[in-house]
Each structure stands twice: as C-alpha cells, then as structure tokens.
Design a protein that fits this description.
Elements: H1 27-43, H2 56-67, H3 75-80, E1 83-85, E2 92-103, E3 109-119, E4 123-125, H4 129-138, E5 141-142, H5 144-159, E6 163-172, H6 173-176, E7 187-192, H7 199-210
Parallel strand pairs: 2-5
Antiparallel strand pairs: 1-4, 2-3, 3-6, 6-7
Helix pairs in contact: 1-2, 4-5
This protein binds guanosine-5'-triphosphate and zinc ion.
The site of guanosine-5'-triphosphate has 10 residues, from helix 5 and helix 6.
C-alpha cells in the first residue's frame, strides 16, 4: 500500500485545482468505495459472494485509491525540497522513467516511459525528484498531453532552468484491449521551454534519449 510516511500532503488551504480532497487512508472511505465495487460486480453479472470475489471490492477500492494518490501530492513542494546551487551548465537528462497512469476517458491504464531534461541556471535538482514529480501527475486521471505539459511547467516554475524538455511514449490499453484494438501503437508527446525550443538543443536531447548505453 501507500508509503504514507514519505508522501508530503496538501494543506487544507492549498490550491486544490478543483479536486476534492479525500482522506484516502480513512477506513470509512474504503468501506464506502468497496460497497460501490460490490455493486459493480453484481451489475456486470458476477456473484460478489463467491469465494474468489469476497475481498475483491475492498482490493479494488484500495487499488483505485493508490492509483490516484497523485492528487495528494504537491509537485512543487517535492522540487523545492532538494534544489542545490551548482555551476553546471550542460543538459541534465533522466531518461526511461516508468510511467503508469490512467486515461480520464475510460479509466484504463496507459503506461510507458518519460524522458526529461533541463539545462541548469545556477541550481540543480535532486535526481530522484524528477521521477517523483512524474508520479505526482501520472497517478491521477490524465490525458498524455496534459501529463507532459504539467511536468514541463512544474520543472520550469520551480527550478527556473534555461530550458526544459519532456518526451513521453505510452501505450494506451483503451486502444489495445478494447475500442480500436491496435496492439502496437505508441503515442509520443513532447513539451519544451526556453533553449529546448531551439532546434539544435532539441535535436541534442532527442539524440541522447535515443542513444543506447553500453
Ligand atoms: N488525446 C488523447 N486522447 C486519449 C487519451 N487517452 C485516451 N484517449 C482517447 O479519448 C477518446 C475518447 O473518445 P470517445 O469517442 O468519447 O470514446 P469512445 O467511444 O470510447 O472511443 P473509442 O476509444 O474510439 O472507442 C478516444 O479517442 C481515446 O483514444 C490521451 O491521453 N490523449
Ligand atoms: Zn481511454
């Protein structure tokens, strides 16, 4: 389950961007949600009382609360917690960051990789904070385009680098296990600021993320 100790929580007066704050560790919320999933099982023609499904509504409730725990996190707080003054002026890239999110249209998973770069402007950020902010925005109901822009904007607004580049490549289960049923299509989105809007920098970034190590 969620490692509660290490998750910074929003204060009550934080800007919730229109989300309703829920206490996702509250047993009565889990119980209430389980009741709805019990009903869902019945409505799809299953028998929620059969042995294999007895604990399924509660498992589903806990899983859904986990898969959306990004609403509880504050990406700017995470970035601000580990910025270090450093005279390094070349591109910093963290690539192949696993992304697990859910599309807001079908609530089905989309998953793949994020590649993120920035050029420091006097400060660097703790490397682990970059995958952490990917999770903050991915662990919500999303579209891939908004996810990409939110990561870019968060890094730009907190670290104030000379530029940010974000590329995300994902497979959407709503396009493979249902609907159009295309098994091999991958969606690529990108977002840039500053220096990365220039072709030379963007090309260097794209070349470095395509390069194989070793
Ligand atoms: N732009 C964008 N679209 C997405 C994303 N995830 C899912 N979708 C699309 O959201 C659209 C919803 O379209 P609708 O026509 O309302 O839904 P639908 O009838 O279930 O559509 P089909 O998936 O084509 O069967 C679909 O085209 C999905 O492929 C995403 O991250 N970005
Ligand atoms: Zn979908």
């Amino acid at each position: 389950m969620i490692d509660k100790e290490h998750l910074p929580h929003r204060d009550d007066d934080d800007d919730l961007d229109g989300y309703t704050k829920v206490d996702r560790y509250n047993p009565s919320l889990i119980q209430n949600l389980s009741g709805h999933y019990h009903d869902v099982l019945k409505q799809i023609g299953e028998n929620p009382e059969r042995e294999g499904l007895l604990k399924t509504p509660e498992r589903m409730a806990k899983a859904m609360l986990y898969l959306t725990h990004g609403y509880d996190l504050d990406a700017k707080e995470i970035m601000n917690s580990a910025m270090f003054k450093e005279e390094y002026s070349q591109m910093v890239i963290v690539k192949d960051i696993e992304v697990y999110s859910m599309c807001e249209h079908h609530m089905l998973p989309f998953f793949g990789k994020a590649h993120i770069a920035y050029i420091p402007n006097g400060y660097v950020v703790g490397l682990s904070k970059i995958p952490r902010i990917v999770d903050v925005f991915a662990r919500r109901l999303q579209v891939q385009e908004r996810l990409t822009n939110e990561i870019r904007d968060c890094i730009q607004d907190t670290l104030n680098p000379i530029g940010v580049g974000v590329v995300i490549e994902c497979r959407h289960l709503c396009m493979s296990m249902r609907g159009v049923q295309k098994q091999n299509s991958v969606t690529t989105t990108s977002a840039f600021t500053g220096e990365f809007l220039k072709e030379k920098t963007r090309t260097e970034f794209l070349n470095l993320i395509s390069a194989k190590l070793g």
